[in-house]
Amino acid sequence: MGGPGLLESVYEEALAYELPQHGCNVRRQVPSPIQYKDVTLATPLKIDLIVNDLVIVECKAVTQYNPIFATQLLTYLRLRKLKLGLVINFGKKLVKDGIHRVVNDL
User: Name one Pfam family in it (predicted).
Assistant: First the structure.
């Protein structure tokens, strides 16, 4: 894609295209209801990608990684009762330098 500089949604869509080419099942912008006390909030959380119903991928496109991204993803993992997630920051010159693994209770 030529490196950083595009919107997160562009990288997300490209990743959602590429992963099935390698045998993965991908769901994009998955609505996830949020429960607050005894009420389900009207606006669900939308998770960028869920791969093989096991891994949440949160896409970012920023020059500076913020640890809050991992905290955010950990919340998503807990809400979905999943164990593994990846924050992929496409804002780095090399994508491999922008991958951060997040685990929930492993």
Answer: PDDEXK_3
22-80 pLDDT per residue, tens: 999 999 999 999 989 999 999 999 999 999 999 999 999 999 999 999 999 999 999 99
- For the chain, the structural domain boundaries read 8-103
Integer Cα distance of 105 and 96 in angstroms:
25
Taking Cα atoms as reference points, which of 73, 60, 82 lies closest to residue 102?
73
For residue 101, the SS3 value is strand
Amino acid at 52: N
Fold observed for domain 8-103: Trna Endonuclease; Chain: A, domain 1 (3.40.1350)
Give the C-alpha separation, 51 to 64, whole Å.
Answer: 25
Contact call for residues 44 and 32 (beta carbons, < 8 A): yes
Does the predicted model carry a pTM greater than 0.70? yes
Spatial strand order in the sheet of 84-89: 26-32, 45-51, 55-60, 84-89, 99-103
